[in-house]
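Reopening: structure tokens for the 2-keto-3-deoxygluconate complex, inputs below.
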Amino acid sequence: MSRVVTFGEIMMRLATPGFARFQQAMPGSVNVTFAGAEASIAASLAYLGADAAFVTALPDHAIADACIADLRSIGVETKHILRTTEGRLGIYFLEHGANQRGGNVIYDREGAAVALTPAAAYDWTAIFTGCEWFVISGITPAISRNAAEVALFAVQEAERRGIKVVCDMNYRTKLWRWEPSLSARDLATRTMKDLLRHVTVFVGGISDAIAMLGVDGAGDLHTVAKQITAQFPNLTHAAFTQRDGSSAAVQNFSGALYEKATDVLHTAPTFSITQIIDRLGAGDAFTAGLLFSILQGSSPAETIAFATAAGCLAHSIEGDFNYSTRAEIEALMQGDGGGRVSR
Ligand SMILES: O=C(O)C(=O)C[C@H](O)[C@H](O)CO
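Re-run output (same inputs, fresh job):
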């Protein structure tokens, strides 16, 4: 199967146990995993059986070794991860939301190795050898001016080599601070508009498109998708996650895929999720599912159904990575969502 490369930051994720607030977390009770959008997409893809590599820069210490070992244990290729003497492993702290209380993320990632490492430090020829798809998210250009430059360089380099690019917009208002003269939103818009010129498949929620591209959210999704793909000629598809819900615990999750060549918006069935174990990484699971299905040569309707089912199942798994198999996702697509015990 074709090789996929993802590039971005991986962090240590420290989550309070269950639904505890930060103030309630006791030493010894914190749940430690590794997470980061592009790493999570690579992990999902590898878990589904795809040939997926993750590229980043990490400090040369034992915790970063553990992080790489975690990725490898899932089958992610890690041989192009740079080990540096400058920069740190980022951390993010998480308390899950429950009922009417939303979740909260606190980042502690300033000065991460990948934020500081310049494009010239990576061997892009080796990284892109045999690669058919490159994946990046809007988080990478948000973390530092340098990372924004590396992200732009990487997508340009991918395009030059005939590699298709998926970009998951992932707007994070708490990031995008590296140009103090601009608001987070203006900085994101300016940066992402440059990046999207080199992107083949747009992925995001409607709120990402409003915040980062200034699209008019009042229109229906078909109109929004047409607007986005018309603005960036390289885009062949635009995929959207859709959520609405009455609380942090009850969400309707769905997806839609617009194909520019046919001007058709394909929509997936909506899943009603009534007990969210962990919603972080559901968007990454959706993107990985989308790309995995594209790699299989599936139709747009099958592709969006697979991506949406993958994103749905990710809500049932603690941590950002989606440990759902292809068979489990396909079973859900076929209506087996009853949560029965397999025995
Ligand atoms: O928010 C970020 O920067 C992350 O990459 C953390 C999570 O892994 C990501 O939000 C999930 O999409």
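The first helix runs from residue 37 to 48. The pocket of 2-keto-3-deoxygluconate is lined by residues 35-37, 40, 92, 139, 170, 172, 280-281, 283-284, 320 (CB under 6 Å). Marking as resolved unless the reporter disagrees.
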